[in-house]
Amino acid sequence: MARYTDAVCKLCRREGMKLFLKGDRCFTKCPLEKKSYPPGQHGPTRRTRRKVSDYGRQLREKQKVRRIYGVYERQFRRYFRQAVQAKGMTGTALLQLLERRLDNVVYRMGLASSRAQARQLVTHGHIMVNGHKVDIASYSVRPGDEITVKERSRKSPYFKDLAEDFGKKQTPPKWLNVNTDDMSATVVALPEREDIDITINEQLIVEFYSR
Fold first, then answer.
1. Which residues form the domain of 125?
2. Which of 56, 101, 128, 150 has the least C-beta neighbours within 10 A?
3. Does one domain contain both 93 and 109?
4. pLDDT tens digit string along 191-201?
5. Both 17 and 92 in a single domain?
6. Same domain for 108 and 185?
């Protein structure tokens, strides 16, 4: 399976907005603020090209969400198929499935400054769900699940330093009940659309896969 290894700031420039792929660095030294055009030798001239087609807008919206959550195309298609079979609006169901990924929950809790870092914490075995170690980043949490840091991992320098500022930098969504004392969280409900603070039009993604 291919993995993107190039500079992630190029992805933000390609989508024309901050995707917050590098955590705190996105708030300080962001190349998008100096180069607001797409990457590549023809980047500056793309702004003067003809109007983007409907397909182009749909594709960019799909790519934007994929890159924000860090999932591959095959994974994203699987999430979309699950969203089609779910009750309610397909676009909202798709975002709910992505929000319920364990790496995203760890990020929303404030245990990591980016989803990529949260994915690393999960795959390295630092996170537990209901008292059991889960090292699968795509694990889907459910209401009632309790997410905690493994006891042994709390003694590491990373979590010791994090404990001092935990809960101060990031406000968790309403569907997560975060305990700042022991760096744990409980999933109290499924995420609603208004809880997902991402500037996207999910209907364009539905139209893209419905062609």
1. 104-189
2. 56
3. no
4. 999 888 888 89
5. yes
6. yes
